[in-house]
Design a protein that fits this description.
The chain has about 150 residues and is of the alpha/beta class. Helices cover about 40% and strands about 20% of the residues. It is built from five helices and six strands, in the order βαββαβαββαα. It is globular. The chain starts with a strand and ends with a helix. The relative contact order is 0.23. Bound molecules: flavin mononucleotide (FMN). Flavin mononucleotide binds near residues 11 and 15.
């Protein structure tokens, strides 16, 4: 059984809802998912000991949040090479953040990222059955990689 950290930023709760749905999908596959607000994480040691990492960030001003930028500098201090990863985030119209975070995990941290790429969801669908299913499916597909 794998233990996966879902670290997220969320100002109005939409990306947090996505995090909860992704955690459900991971748990449906029999793995452990731990939800962590990145604002609560003060040093990289607090992020050690996970088999996989999924980071979530909403898009504000066509960018990721300042908190997520600082968090990624903390994550850089861990050796995440080859760890399974994914990224997600809520948005209304442009939605750059999730793929920016995904790219950092893939190209800078050299993680083993899910083939699904980043999960960006428009905020209007997040609290619908369709939105919940998309998040659960992402968590399920990501944790399937632990069977190999
Ligand atoms: C000031 C402001 C700027 C925003 N800028 C963008 C943007 O550039 N692109 C986009 O897709 N959404 C933008 N949004 C919408 C948010 O991404 C959206 O409301 C998202 O669901 C918030 O997620 P959260 O509740 O996890 O913080 C912006 C929202 C606000 C209030």
């Amino acid at each position: 059984m794998a233990k996966i950290m879902i670290g997220y930023a969320s100002r109005t709760g939409k990306t947090e809802k996505m995090a909860e749905g992704i955690a459900e999908g991971i748990r449906m596959n029999g793995h452990t998912a731990e939800l962590r607000k990145i604002s609560d994480i003060k040093n990289e040691e607090e992020m050690e000991g996970y088999d996989g990492y999924v980071f979530g960030c909403p898009t504000y001003h066509r960018d990721m949040t300042p908190g997520m930028k600082n968090f990624l500098f903390l994550a850089e201090r861990l050796n995440l090479v080859g760890k399974i990863g994914g990224a997600f985030g809520a948005y209304t119209h442009s939605g750059e953040s999730a793929s920016m975070v995904f790219d950092t995990m893939e190209f800078v941290f050299k993680m083993d990222m899910t083939d699904l790429k980043a999960l960006s969801l428009k905020e209007a669908i997040i609290e619908t059955d369709e939105g919940l299913k998309a998040c659960q499916d992402y968590g399920k597909a990501l944790s399937e990689k632990f069977k190999n």
